[in-house]
Amino acid sequence: IVWAGEGIALFGVVQDRVRAAIAAGRDPQAQPLDVHVDDSGFRAWARGAAAVAIQASMERMRSGRG
User: Fold this and answer.
1) In 3D, which of 32, 33, 31, 45 has the Cα closest to residue 3?
2) Which residues contact 15 (CB under 8 A, 6 or more apart)?
3) 26-58 burial: b if 16+ Cβ within 10 Å, else e
4) In 3-state terms, what secondary structure has residue 41?
5) Are 41 and 11 spatial neighbours (Cβ–Cβ below 8 Å)?
6) Average predicted confidence (pLDDT) for the chain
7) How many whole angstroms separate alpha carbon 13 and alpha carbon 34?
């Protein structure tokens, strides 16, 4: 899991609760998830969001739903 975005600095305040919620919702036998906090800023987050949006649009066009 990669956490990123404008308010990522708040993750430090709530990370114990977030990690506990993730663990509570998973099978106890499951492999642990890697959690990475990307504090590179809004621009990097926005580039990633744009890439995901472009991919989704291309998939819809290929499937004839777009």
Assistant:
1) 45
2) 37
3) eeeeeeeeeeeeeeeeeeebeeeeeeeeeeeee
4) coil
5) no
6) 89
7) 19
pLDDT at residue 5, rounded to an integer: 78
Q: 13-32: per-residue pLDDT in tens?
A: 999 999 999 999 999 999 98
Single-letter code of the amino acid located at 38: D
Domain boundaries, the chain: 2-63
Q: Is the pLDDT of residue 36 over 80?
A: yes
Q: Between the CA of residue 6 and those of 33, 37, 40, 44, 53, what are the distances in Å?
A: 23, 12, 10, 10, 18
Q: Retrieve residue 7's tokens.
A: 């308010």
